[in-house]
Please model this.
Amino acid sequence: MSDLQRQLDTYIKDIRPRYEDMLGQAVEIPSISMDPRHAPDVGRMAELAAQYLRAAGAETHIVETPGYPVVSGGWTVDPSYPTVTVYNHMDVQPAQEPEWKQAPFAFQNDNGIYRGRGATDDKGPALAALFGARYAMEQGVPINVRFLWELEEENGSPSFAAAIKNRAAIPRPDSVVISDTIWLSKNQPAMPYGLRGLLGARLVLRTGSKDAHSGVTGGAARNPLAELMDIVHACVDAKTGKVKIPGFYDDVVEPSKAEIKSFLQSGFQVSKFKQAYGFKTLRTHDPAEVMRRIWAAPTFEVHGLVGGYHGPGVKTVVPGHGELKVSMRLVPNQTPEKAFALLKKHVAKLNPEVKVEREGMLHPFSGVFEGPYVDAVKRAVKAGFGKEPAFIREGGSIGAVVTMQKTWKVPILFMGLSLPEHGYHAPNEYFDWGQASGGMKAFVHYFEELAAKR
Model:
């Protein structure tokens, strides 16, 4: 081991208590952006995030938007140096699942296992990147590092585009790196080069002013829940997942042979995928087909059905209204605007009384999986974790990525630190010191790689 490597290892060991204290403070703020009741908490999270940047020696701005703010900060050492922006988000998902074994916003540190909502998505990785940047700045690495910490990512990033128009607080970088994605497994780092888009919608049907007794009205009364389920059947094959909406697949670009080859070389294992997410069975168990479906194929999903009785036992009512919550994941070259128009047209033909309300939309993202920036990610991840990452697509969506791509037109890479078992959007979420410390090391090496390109 070289003296420089020992120096970095010593730094990471010494700052561990500080990292754990900062993560604990952040996790205990319930910054749930999609719930208006937590607006004060989101504001507190923005202030704490700005405080963290200032404490690291970075100049800092809280950029106000029509919604929640964006926290921007960093080091501009020399305009002639390359500038990289690191993106993370500091808002979190709700934590109402009954399976939680602890209070979700009461941070627990179990000997390097960091439990609590937001620990892995995305506060833990954000702070790991910050400590990596601080070390690079202290060592005089010739690079400018900027941070963008969003507070509306879990709500579809509705205000992000407005924020990055503020060129004084958020200057245009030469490249962007995102740390908000999941590996294939603990033994196989994975970095995506593409994201699926998203369209959310609510299908609402009201057939009466109130619930009615089925013994008195059943047979003559319309049942809005049954009618909405009929619409679901006409939109998607529940057994295969094939979407039945006319024109839905017209713009889909299938993954290339090179991409499928990259998927197959990734080390993805169906058994580990099932275990990580608690599945008993899947629609297919062919590895290539599973990967294609979760990364490169569009979907139609049903998330919830509202109306009628939801208590214990059976209450024999005919509901007066029903609401179906659905979404579609989209791939290049689909657009959420066209997908919504197709859905609305299809539903109107099936049942013109059903109102289709749009609930957010995100465009798919397509990046590169070859070239000098990709090579830099490979070397940095290997330096941090001992193994080169696989390059795959990501099945989820990050709205800010497409906005940055359109606005800045610069290379956008991914260097996520989370594992499948960490519980993204799930109960009992956690992060761990192994991923945090390896991430710090990987980010230091990534900044050095970018600096060497100038």
In short: The CA atoms of residues 189 and 277 lie 18 Å apart. The longest strand covers residues 197-206. The chain has a mean pLDDT of 95. Residues 3-27 form the longest helix (25 residues).
